[in-house]
Amino acid sequence: MKLLLAEDEPKVANAVKAGLEEQGMEVTVAFDGKMAEKYFDRDSFDCIILDINLPYTNGLDLCKQFRNRNKKVPIILLTALGELEDKMEGFSAGADDYLVKPFHLQELLARIHVIVKRSSGVDQPQNMMEVGDLVLDLDAKSVKRAGKLIKLTQKEFLLLEALAKARGRVLSKADLAEKVWALDFDTGTNTVEVYINFLRNKIDKLHPTKLIHTRTGFGYYLKEES
Question: Tens of pLDDT along 73-117?
């Protein structure tokens, strides 16, 4: 998951960044409104966290600006102001959630997960699949892990889709050959193994938590295991 954090207090920003990165998130920090605008212009984010009291352009104005340019990206406002009218002003600016300082990191994490999941499921939730931090968009034929886009070939995507739709069940080589290549399984070919290795190199290689697993003598499955 890719986040933009706009916070002008370095100690707070660094502590939040470190805590979120421990959870596998990728965090870009902006220490003022101008930096936040620059990062927003050049990249896309799964969630934006804005402190209200930012130099140059404050968080409320940034929130309005970002919301006008992107109707779907989740935005959380951070502030020391906890009065009802302050919260209403934040929601009116286009924020999805509002967190009053000081806060616990676990509360921020919970709110991030809730609004990102809610946002990603607005249009066609049945066409989005998640396995841990892996997200498949079945309409766009795109795959992201930890917020980063992964380029797959058509067959690689079909193979990953078949594993994802099995929801943790083991699929044999014959099952996968039929679903992906529409062929009867030939025991003399290693096509399935080769493509599983292609997927592992792209999906799992750079991550400590592996999602693609082998059940020796049976087949393969896709699951986040503790």
Answer: 899 998 877 666 777 888 888 888 888 888 888 889 988 988 888
Task: Answer yes or no: CATH 1.10.150.20 is held by domain 126-222.
Answer: no
Using a 10 angstrom Cβ sphere, with 0-12 exposed, 13-18 middle and 19 or more buried, the burial of residue 86 is middle
pLDDT digits (tens, 9 = 90+) for 172-220: 998 898 888 876 556 567 889 999 999 999 999 999 999 999 999 999 9
Contact of 118 with 133, CB cutoff 8 Å? no
Check pLDDT > 60 for residue 121.
no
Whether the predicted model's global pTM rises above the 0.85 cut: no
Helix (H) or strand (E) holding 97: strand 97-100
**Where, residue-wise, is CATH 1.10.10.10 in the chain?**
126-222
Supply the DSSP symbol for 171: B
Cis peptide before 102 (omega within 30 of 0): yes
Say if residue 41 is exposed, middle or buried (CB neighbours under 10 Å; 0-12, 13-18, 19+). exposed
B/e letters for 155-182, b = 16+ CB within 10 Å, e = fewer, are: ebbbbbbbbbebeeebbebebbbebbbe
Give the whole-number percent of the chain exceeding pLDDT 70. 92
**Side chain identity, residue 140:** A
- CATH level 2 (architecture), domain 2-120: 3-Layer(aba) Sandwich (3.40)
Residues of the chain with CATH 3.40.50.2300: 2-120
